[in-house]
Amino acid sequence: MARFRNKKKVAFVKPSKKQPQQNVDHVTGDKIPRSFVFSRLKLPATLKQLQADLRKMMLPYTALNLKEKKRNNLRDFLNVAGPMGVTHFLMLSKTGTSPYLRVARTPQGPTLTFKIQEYSLAVDITNSQLRPRVPKDLFKNSPLIVLSGFGTGEQHLKLTTIMFQNIFPAIDINTVKLSSCQRIVLLNYNKETKLIDFRHYSIRLQPVGVSRRIRKFVQNHKVPDLRSLQDVSDFITKAGYGSESEGDEEGATVSLASDVGRVNKASTKSAVKLQEIGPRMTLELIKIEDGLCSGTVIFGNSGEKKEPEDKDENEDSEDVSKGSEDEMMDD
Predict the structure, then answer these.
(1) Which residues form the Brix domain (predicted)?
(2) Domain positions in the chain
(3) Number of C-beta neighbours around residue 325 at 10 A
(4) d(CA 94, CA 82)
(5) pLDDT in tens, 88-127
(6) pTM of the entire structure?
(7) Which of 33, 47, 165, 213 could form a disulfide with 241 if both were Cys (CB 3.0 to 4.6 A apart)?
(8) What's the pLDDT tens digit per position in 278-318?
(9) 166 φ, ψ to 5°?
Protein backbone atom coordinates (compact mmCIF):
# COMPACT_ATOMS: atom_id res chain seq x y z
CA MET A 1 0.00 0.00 0.00
CA ALA A 2 1.37 3.38 -0.99
CA ARG A 3 2.51 5.68 1.76
CA PHE A 4 1.57 9.33 1.78
CA ARG A 5 4.05 11.78 3.19
CA ASN A 6 2.72 14.22 5.68
CA LYS A 7 2.79 17.72 4.31
CA LYS A 8 4.80 20.21 6.30
CA LYS A 9 2.50 22.43 8.26
CA VAL A 10 2.89 26.13 7.73
CA ALA A 11 2.43 28.32 10.75
CA PHE A 12 -0.53 30.65 10.49
CA VAL A 13 0.40 34.30 10.81
CA LYS A 14 -2.33 36.64 11.88
CA PRO A 15 -2.54 39.56 9.47
CA SER A 16 -1.49 42.80 11.06
CA LYS A 17 -3.50 45.96 11.00
CA LYS A 18 -3.13 48.12 7.94
CA GLN A 19 -0.25 50.52 8.37
CA PRO A 20 -0.59 54.15 7.31
CA GLN A 21 0.89 54.98 3.95
CA GLN A 22 4.41 56.32 4.09
CA ASN A 23 3.65 58.97 1.48
CA VAL A 24 0.83 60.53 3.54
CA ASP A 25 1.34 63.04 6.31
CA HIS A 26 -0.11 61.62 9.53
CA VAL A 27 -0.98 65.14 10.75
CA THR A 28 -2.53 66.88 7.74
CA GLY A 29 -3.56 63.75 5.85
CA ASP A 30 -2.16 65.19 2.61
CA LYS A 31 0.22 63.41 0.28
CA ILE A 32 3.83 64.31 1.04
CA PRO A 33 5.54 65.78 -2.05
CA ARG A 34 8.79 64.09 -3.02
CA SER A 35 11.31 65.26 -5.57
CA PHE A 36 14.10 64.26 -7.93
CA VAL A 37 16.83 66.82 -8.66
CA PHE A 38 18.88 65.86 -11.71
CA SER A 39 20.54 67.32 -14.79
CA ARG A 40 19.79 67.12 -18.47
CA LEU A 41 22.80 67.09 -20.77
CA LYS A 42 26.28 67.82 -19.45
CA LEU A 43 26.83 70.38 -16.69
CA PRO A 44 29.97 72.26 -15.65
CA ALA A 45 31.40 71.72 -12.19
CA THR A 46 29.73 74.80 -10.65
CA LEU A 47 26.26 73.74 -11.82
CA LYS A 48 26.93 70.22 -10.54
CA GLN A 49 27.55 71.76 -7.13
CA LEU A 50 24.37 73.81 -7.48
CA GLN A 51 22.52 70.57 -8.17
CA ALA A 52 23.93 69.08 -4.95
CA ASP A 53 22.88 72.21 -3.03
CA LEU A 54 19.33 71.96 -4.39
CA ARG A 55 19.14 68.31 -3.36
CA LYS A 56 20.24 69.20 0.14
CA MET A 57 17.72 72.03 0.27
CA MET A 58 14.88 69.66 -0.69
CA LEU A 59 15.66 67.25 2.16
CA PRO A 60 14.32 65.08 3.69
CA TYR A 61 11.84 64.16 0.92
CA THR A 62 14.25 63.88 -1.99
CA ALA A 63 16.77 61.43 -3.43
CA LEU A 64 20.02 62.85 -2.07
CA ASN A 65 22.16 60.13 -3.69
CA LEU A 66 20.38 59.91 -7.02
CA LYS A 67 22.79 58.49 -9.60
CA GLU A 68 22.58 59.50 -13.25
CA LYS A 69 23.90 57.84 -16.38
CA LYS A 70 24.46 59.40 -19.78
CA ARG A 71 22.05 56.93 -21.32
CA ASN A 72 19.22 57.84 -18.93
CA ASN A 73 16.45 59.89 -20.50
CA LEU A 74 13.44 61.59 -18.97
CA ARG A 75 11.24 58.50 -19.26
CA ASP A 76 13.73 56.51 -17.19
CA PHE A 77 13.38 58.94 -14.32
CA LEU A 78 9.61 58.97 -14.75
CA ASN A 79 9.37 55.17 -14.56
CA VAL A 80 11.35 55.12 -11.32
CA ALA A 81 9.44 58.09 -9.88
CA GLY A 82 6.06 56.34 -9.95
CA PRO A 83 6.75 53.50 -7.48
CA MET A 84 8.68 55.85 -5.19
CA GLY A 85 5.89 58.43 -4.97
CA VAL A 86 7.96 61.25 -6.51
CA THR A 87 5.72 64.18 -7.40
CA HIS A 88 8.16 66.81 -8.74
CA PHE A 89 11.24 67.03 -10.94
CA LEU A 90 13.87 69.79 -10.70
CA MET A 91 16.03 69.65 -13.81
CA LEU A 92 19.16 71.69 -14.49
CA SER A 93 20.48 72.26 -18.01
CA LYS A 94 23.01 74.51 -19.71
CA THR A 95 23.23 76.16 -23.13
CA GLY A 96 26.23 77.95 -24.55
CA THR A 97 25.18 81.16 -22.81
CA SER A 98 22.90 80.49 -19.83
CA PRO A 99 21.87 77.79 -17.34
CA TYR A 100 18.22 76.81 -16.94
CA LEU A 101 16.06 75.29 -14.21
CA ARG A 102 12.88 73.38 -15.03
CA VAL A 103 10.37 72.54 -12.31
CA ALA A 104 7.82 69.93 -13.37
CA ARG A 105 4.92 68.10 -11.79
CA THR A 106 4.86 64.36 -12.48
CA PRO A 107 3.60 62.51 -14.33
CA GLN A 108 1.69 64.87 -16.66
CA GLY A 109 2.99 68.37 -15.91
CA PRO A 110 2.85 71.33 -15.97
CA THR A 111 6.48 72.37 -16.46
CA LEU A 112 7.94 75.76 -15.55
CA THR A 113 11.20 76.79 -17.23
CA PHE A 114 13.39 79.41 -15.56
CA LYS A 115 16.50 81.07 -16.87
CA ILE A 116 19.09 81.36 -14.09
CA GLN A 117 20.37 84.91 -14.38
CA GLU A 118 22.69 84.69 -11.36
CA TYR A 119 23.45 82.10 -8.71
CA SER A 120 25.67 81.58 -5.68
CA LEU A 121 26.59 78.23 -4.18
CA ALA A 122 26.02 77.33 -0.54
CA VAL A 123 29.77 77.16 0.06
CA ASP A 124 30.16 80.71 -1.24
CA ILE A 125 27.44 81.95 1.11
CA THR A 126 29.11 80.16 4.04
CA ASN A 127 32.57 81.53 3.26
CA SER A 128 31.23 85.08 3.14
CA GLN A 129 29.85 84.86 6.70
CA LEU A 130 31.83 85.55 9.84
CA ARG A 131 29.93 82.95 11.89
CA PRO A 132 28.23 80.42 9.59
CA ARG A 133 25.54 78.32 11.25
CA VAL A 134 24.66 74.82 9.98
CA PRO A 135 23.44 72.58 12.85
CA LYS A 136 23.46 68.80 12.43
CA ASP A 137 19.67 68.47 12.47
CA LEU A 138 19.03 71.50 10.25
CA PHE A 139 17.88 69.36 7.31
CA LYS A 140 15.85 66.91 9.36
CA ASN A 141 12.58 68.67 8.49
CA SER A 142 11.29 70.29 5.33
CA PRO A 143 11.66 74.06 4.93
CA LEU A 144 8.79 76.52 5.05
CA ILE A 145 7.91 78.25 1.78
CA VAL A 146 7.22 82.00 1.65
CA LEU A 147 6.13 83.73 -1.58
CA SER A 148 6.20 87.50 -1.86
CA GLY A 149 5.06 89.84 -4.64
CA PHE A 150 3.38 87.25 -6.84
CA GLY A 151 -0.18 88.46 -6.29
CA THR A 152 -3.13 86.76 -7.98
CA GLY A 153 -3.58 88.77 -11.16
CA GLU A 154 -1.66 87.11 -13.99
CA GLN A 155 -2.15 83.45 -14.85
CA HIS A 156 1.53 82.54 -15.11
CA LEU A 157 2.16 83.97 -11.63
CA LYS A 158 -0.74 81.93 -10.26
CA LEU A 159 0.73 78.74 -11.73
CA THR A 160 4.16 79.62 -10.32
CA THR A 161 2.64 80.17 -6.88
CA ILE A 162 0.74 76.88 -6.95
CA MET A 163 3.79 74.95 -8.17
CA PHE A 164 6.11 76.15 -5.41
CA GLN A 165 3.44 75.86 -2.72
CA ASN A 166 2.92 72.19 -3.59
CA ILE A 167 6.58 71.29 -3.91
CA PHE A 168 7.00 71.32 -0.10
CA PRO A 169 4.80 69.55 2.48
CA ALA A 170 1.89 71.53 3.89
CA ILE A 171 1.84 72.35 7.60
CA ASP A 172 -0.97 72.61 10.10
CA ILE A 173 -0.53 75.84 12.07
CA ASN A 174 -2.58 74.41 14.94
CA THR A 175 -0.35 71.38 15.52
CA VAL A 176 3.05 72.29 14.06
CA LYS A 177 5.96 72.42 16.51
CA LEU A 178 8.18 75.47 16.36
CA SER A 179 11.21 73.26 16.92
CA SER A 180 10.58 71.63 13.51
CA CYS A 181 10.59 74.99 11.69
CA GLN A 182 14.31 75.44 11.15
CA ARG A 183 14.53 76.51 7.51
CA ILE A 184 12.71 78.80 5.13
CA VAL A 185 12.73 79.15 1.34
CA LEU A 186 11.87 82.68 0.21
CA LEU A 187 10.79 83.61 -3.32
CA ASN A 188 10.34 87.31 -4.00
CA TYR A 189 8.93 88.48 -7.36
CA ASN A 190 10.02 91.90 -8.61
CA LYS A 191 7.26 93.35 -10.81
CA GLU A 192 9.59 95.88 -12.42
CA THR A 193 12.39 93.54 -13.46
CA LYS A 194 10.12 90.43 -13.63
CA LEU A 195 12.79 88.44 -11.84
CA ILE A 196 12.44 86.05 -8.90
CA ASP A 197 14.90 86.21 -6.02
CA PHE A 198 15.39 82.70 -4.62
CA ARG A 199 16.82 82.54 -1.08
CA HIS A 200 17.33 79.78 1.51
CA TYR A 201 17.63 80.68 5.22
CA SER A 202 18.01 78.93 8.54
CA ILE A 203 15.74 79.97 11.41
CA ARG A 204 16.78 80.36 15.01
CA LEU A 205 15.05 81.82 18.04
CA GLN A 206 16.77 83.97 20.62
CA PRO A 207 15.21 84.90 23.98
CA VAL A 208 14.39 88.58 24.46
CA GLY A 209 15.92 90.35 27.47
CA VAL A 210 18.80 87.92 27.99
CA SER A 211 22.42 88.93 27.50
CA ARG A 212 24.40 87.28 24.74
CA ARG A 213 26.89 85.83 27.23
CA ILE A 214 24.21 84.03 29.26
CA ARG A 215 22.44 82.82 26.13
CA LYS A 216 25.60 81.27 24.70
CA PHE A 217 26.47 79.70 28.03
CA VAL A 218 23.10 77.92 28.25
CA GLN A 219 23.02 76.90 24.60
CA ASN A 220 26.58 75.64 24.28
CA HIS A 221 27.17 74.39 27.85
CA LYS A 222 30.49 76.23 27.97
CA VAL A 223 31.97 76.55 31.45
CA PRO A 224 33.12 80.17 31.96
CA ASP A 225 36.41 81.12 33.56
CA LEU A 226 35.49 82.83 36.88
CA ARG A 227 38.92 82.83 38.53
CA SER A 228 39.44 86.59 38.12
CA LEU A 229 35.92 87.49 39.32
CA GLN A 230 34.74 88.06 42.87
CA ASP A 231 31.09 87.20 42.27
CA VAL A 232 28.85 85.64 39.61
CA SER A 233 27.17 89.01 39.13
CA ASP A 234 30.49 90.32 37.81
CA PHE A 235 30.28 87.74 35.03
CA ILE A 236 26.78 88.90 34.07
CA THR A 237 27.33 92.64 34.26
CA LYS A 238 30.92 92.79 33.07
CA ALA A 239 31.38 95.26 30.22
CA GLY A 240 31.64 93.89 26.70
CA TYR A 241 29.55 90.77 27.27
CA GLY A 242 26.61 91.97 25.21
CA SER A 243 23.61 94.21 25.65
CA GLU A 244 20.75 93.14 27.85
CA SER A 245 18.25 94.46 25.31
CA GLU A 246 19.78 92.79 22.26
CA GLY A 247 17.08 91.68 19.85
CA ASP A 248 14.24 93.46 21.67
CA GLU A 249 12.32 94.37 18.54
CA GLU A 250 8.57 93.79 18.58
CA GLY A 251 8.47 93.31 14.81
CA ALA A 252 10.90 90.38 15.00
CA THR A 253 9.57 88.54 18.04
CA VAL A 254 7.26 85.57 18.46
CA SER A 255 5.32 84.34 21.49
CA LEU A 256 6.04 80.73 22.34
CA ALA A 257 3.29 78.33 23.32
CA SER A 258 5.62 75.43 24.15
CA ASP A 259 9.24 74.75 24.96
CA VAL A 260 11.48 74.88 21.89
CA GLY A 261 14.90 74.86 23.52
CA ARG A 262 16.94 75.20 26.68
CA VAL A 263 16.69 79.00 26.62
CA ASN A 264 13.34 79.60 24.91
CA LYS A 265 10.61 78.75 27.39
CA ALA A 266 6.83 78.77 27.20
CA SER A 267 4.88 82.02 27.67
CA THR A 268 7.90 84.08 26.67
CA LYS A 269 8.92 86.10 23.63
CA SER A 270 11.83 85.27 21.39
CA ALA A 271 13.48 87.14 18.54
CA VAL A 272 13.40 85.43 15.14
CA LYS A 273 16.77 85.43 13.38
CA LEU A 274 17.33 84.40 9.75
CA GLN A 275 20.73 83.42 8.42
CA GLU A 276 21.26 82.62 4.76
CA ILE A 277 22.66 79.17 4.05
CA GLY A 278 22.29 79.06 0.25
CA PRO A 279 21.98 78.37 -2.54
CA ARG A 280 20.97 81.76 -3.92
CA MET A 281 19.48 82.26 -7.38
CA THR A 282 17.94 84.98 -9.53
CA LEU A 283 15.38 83.37 -11.85
CA GLU A 284 13.45 84.56 -14.88
CA LEU A 285 10.32 82.67 -15.91
CA ILE A 286 10.49 82.18 -19.67
CA LYS A 287 8.05 79.35 -20.42
CA ILE A 288 5.21 77.27 -18.98
CA GLU A 289 4.11 74.04 -20.68
CA ASP A 290 0.98 72.11 -19.75
CA GLY A 291 2.75 68.75 -20.07
CA LEU A 292 5.93 67.18 -18.74
CA CYS A 293 8.56 69.11 -20.74
CA SER A 294 6.13 69.08 -23.66
CA GLY A 295 2.64 70.10 -24.68
CA THR A 296 0.93 73.43 -25.24
CA VAL A 297 2.90 76.51 -24.24
CA ILE A 298 0.72 78.40 -21.73
CA PHE A 299 3.21 81.21 -21.21
CA GLY A 300 6.32 82.06 -23.19
CA ASN A 301 8.83 84.86 -23.42
CA SER A 302 9.19 85.35 -27.16
CA GLY A 303 12.40 87.35 -26.80
CA GLU A 304 14.26 84.57 -25.02
CA LYS A 305 16.36 81.98 -26.78
CA LYS A 306 14.94 78.50 -26.45
CA GLU A 307 16.58 76.32 -23.84
CA PRO A 308 18.18 73.01 -24.92
CA GLU A 309 15.87 70.10 -25.59
CA ASP A 310 16.63 66.48 -24.82
CA LYS A 311 16.61 64.32 -27.92
CA ASP A 312 15.11 61.42 -26.00
CA GLU A 313 12.38 63.33 -24.20
CA ASN A 314 9.76 62.92 -26.90
CA GLU A 315 10.82 59.40 -27.86
CA ASP A 316 9.35 56.26 -26.37
CA SER A 317 11.83 54.19 -24.40
CA GLU A 318 11.69 50.79 -22.79
CA ASP A 319 10.67 50.41 -19.15
CA VAL A 320 13.45 50.69 -16.64
CA SER A 321 14.58 47.28 -15.49
CA LYS A 322 15.31 46.42 -11.90
CA GLY A 323 19.01 46.65 -12.60
CA SER A 324 18.67 50.16 -13.96
CA GLU A 325 16.78 51.22 -10.86
CA ASP A 326 19.58 49.97 -8.66
CA GLU A 327 22.09 51.94 -10.71
CA MET A 328 20.11 55.19 -10.43
CA MET A 329 19.14 54.98 -6.78
CA ASP A 330 21.54 54.58 -3.88
CA ASP A 331 19.91 52.61 -1.08
Answers:
(1) 33-294
(2) 35-204+278-328, 209-272
(3) 14
(4) 27
(5) 999 999 988 899 999 999 999 899 999 999 999 999 999 9
(6) 0.74
(7) 213
(8) 899 999 999 999 999 998 998 986 555 455 555 444 443 33
(9) -90, -5
